[in-house]
Amino acid sequence: MAAPERPEAASSSSIPDYECVNVNSKAFHIGSFRDEWLKRLQPEDFSFQQLDQDAFDAKFAAEMGVREETMAELRAVCSADSLRCHPEDQEPDKEDRQTVGMVPETKADMLPEGEVIVTVNIYFPTNLGKFNGVRPRMTLLLTGSHTLADLRDAICCVSDLQVCGEFSSTPDMVPDFISKFLPSFMSLLLGSSTTIEWAKSHNYPSFSQAKMEDTRFVDLTVKLGFPYLYCHQGDCEHPVIITDVRLVHKSDCLDKRLYPLLTHKNRSLSQKCAVCHVFIGRWYTTQDQFAPSDPCLFCDKCFRMLHYDKDGKKLGEFLAYPYVDRGAFN
Ligand SMILES: [Zn+2]
Ligand SMILES: [Zn+2]
């Protein structure tokens, strides 16, 4: 988080300042913060026009007070061409490619100059007991014109795929896709009606409520580094932390179709089938006379081979539940 120099007249709610040092900022309005930057910068500072390399070098040398020999050394050692996160003969990961200066083919898909970029960390659900405040499940870059609904749709969580129920007699009836009508919400950014009622009854300051589809980041007043909450499927609660708000730079991915842009994903360990130890678990059974443990996890193939005859008839007694592995989004 970097704040521009603070003139006397500036409103405190448009320039972030620490509330807790090195932890989180006070609340500020993202759109006003962007406007403060745009007022102070020259258009060429946030322009996407590439500077002529010689002109750039001369400006850099003058600003840093270094001589021509030093510039030549910097060019040789620190140029972007010498940076590599993969072996020379291999293609970089798709995710790596997207984040480095990608320019769209048509102008219509180009991010506008002066657009604001918001970095959001989404953590594992707290009910998994994995929130340690250090390693986010994923990091997304969103633009100021994205809505909270765009953020919600970009969050991958197995809870959205989990089918509840016992299917040992009808394993083919497990739907591939289920629509769930439990509402999701971002709390503290926006409260759900339950949160609002609860806050009222406990004498907390009043919350406002708005639709995620109608709420753009640029219109939000937020605290950087402060844990907010995304809740979906009833009780799957993810801490969400905004870690940075800045203007888009010409070295960013400039293709707006690729945003929300995933820049980091924490891969989860997959739980393997207890029989073949090769495939990822798709079923777990309980009270199962064929299983070495209770509950026991099976891949689809082993589950069907062990528990059904060739006509698909259930063999023996057991209860079977569909299982979605946490590594499904790796
Ligand atoms: Zn979730
Ligand atoms: Zn298996």
From TrEMBL:
Query: Which UniProt keyword terms apply here?
Result: DNA-binding, Nucleus, Transcription, Transcription regulation
One Gene Ontology molecular-function label = RNA polymerase II cis-regulatory region sequence-specific DNA binding
One GO location term (cellular component): nucleus
Record-linked InterPro entries: snRNA-activating_su3
Q: Name one Pfam family in it.
A: SNAPC3
Its annotated compartments are:
Nucleus
Give the UniProt record's GO annotations in the biological process aspect: snRNA transcription by RNA polymerase II; snRNA transcription by RNA polymerase III
> Which superkingdom?
Eukaryota
What is said about its interaction partners and assembly? Part of the SNAPc complex composed of 5 subunits: SNAPC1, SNAPC2, SNAPC3, SNAPC4 and SNAPC5. SNAPC3 interacts with SNAPC1.
Per the entry, what this protein does is:
Part of the SNAPc complex required for the transcription of both RNA polymerase II and III small-nuclear RNA genes. Binds to the proximal sequence element (PSE), a non-TATA-box basal promoter element common to these 2 types of genes. Recruits TBP and BRF2 to the U6 snRNA TATA box.
Q: Give the record's family classification.
A: Belongs to the SNAPC3/SRD2 family.
Q: What is this protein called?
A: snRNA-activating protein complex subunit 3
